[in-house]
């Protein structure tokens, strides 16, 4: 599923090919956007799970892939690997076509309005961005003191980019109970959690892929388990419910969490319930 590392990889793949190029055509939900033809692409960037393509006349193309969206890059005469009817965005520049398939969110917005935009302006610090501000991220996390930490980490207004995979994996790495409240943790614990999340997400965003083109780019296998032994997968707990923990042998569990009922994977032995949180619940 596309999380912050995937979007940064997309931006890194699209940027060098699109920036500085004039728009030959742009289809948005099968409607031609003629006013952008001839204008230059000036920047391609990821903000959390969002991709932004900037044009020199002040328009920004914003896409969010949610669960099933994907970006492909083709030569201008190359056949799409997916049905053209599922193409949400088709952006053509000389010699190349960038196609976004099945994106639930695809829209145009003025660059001058991004700061106040409901979807973009409220995002928390991007964990992968060079300018990541850990103090600001910690302060935003503290505002959700009453939320379970597994749920709070998914709030994009706290830190941008974490999804279900990284949520479960970073909490396991730090041996933290996903169902304990944020307020039950010290600043040092939360800062260590954010530091590991940033380090592992940057590593995945910058990982090399085999082959060429954007298809190979999506073939990257996300890895969160550093120094895995032979026979171990690249992830510690995610989608491993019912299997033994690589570290202690206990059975990995999955529980739904938060209003959205997202899946959270954890080891009940490596991540035992936090006693302070249990006392608070009894009170």
From TrEMBL:
Gene3D superfamilies: 1.10.8.50, MutM-like, N-terminal. It is an enzyme of class 4 (lyase). Its cofactor is Zn(2+). InterPro entries: DNA_glyclase_Znf_dom_DNA_BS, FPG_cat, FPG_N, H2TH_FPG, Nei2_N, Ribosomal_uS13-like_H2TH, Znf_DNA_glyclase/AP_lyase, Znf_FPG/IleRS. Residues 236-272 form the FPG-type domain. SUPFAM superfamilies: Glucocorticoid receptor-like (DNA-binding domain), N-terminal domain of MutM-like DNA repair proteins, S13-like H2TH domain. Pfam families: Fapy_DNA_glyco (PF01149), H2TH (PF06831), zf-FPG_IleRS (PF06827). Keywords: DNA damage, DNA repair, DNA-binding, Glycosidase, Hydrolase, Lyase, Metal-binding, Multifunctional enzyme, Zinc, Zinc-finger. The keyword Hydrolase applies. GO terms for biological process: base-excision repair. One of its GO terms (molecular function) is oxidized pyrimidine nucleobase lesion DNA N-glycosylase activity. SMART domains: Fapy_DNA_glyco, H2TH. PROSITE patterns: FPG_CAT, ZF_FPG_1, ZF_FPG_2. The keyword Zinc applies. Residues 2-87 form the Formamidopyrimidine-DNA glycosylase catalytic domain. Its EC number is 4.2.99.18. It catalyses: 2'-deoxyribonucleotide-(2'-deoxyribose 5'-phosphate)-2'-deoxyribonucleotide-DNA = a 3'-end 2'-deoxyribonucleotide-(2,3-dehydro-2,3-deoxyribose 5'-phosphate)-DNA + a 5'-end 5'-phospho-2'-deoxyribonucleoside-DNA + H(+). Belongs to the FPG family. This is DNA-(apurinic or apyrimidinic site) lyase. The lineage of its organism: Bacteria, Pseudomonadati, Myxococcota, Polyangia, Polyangiales.
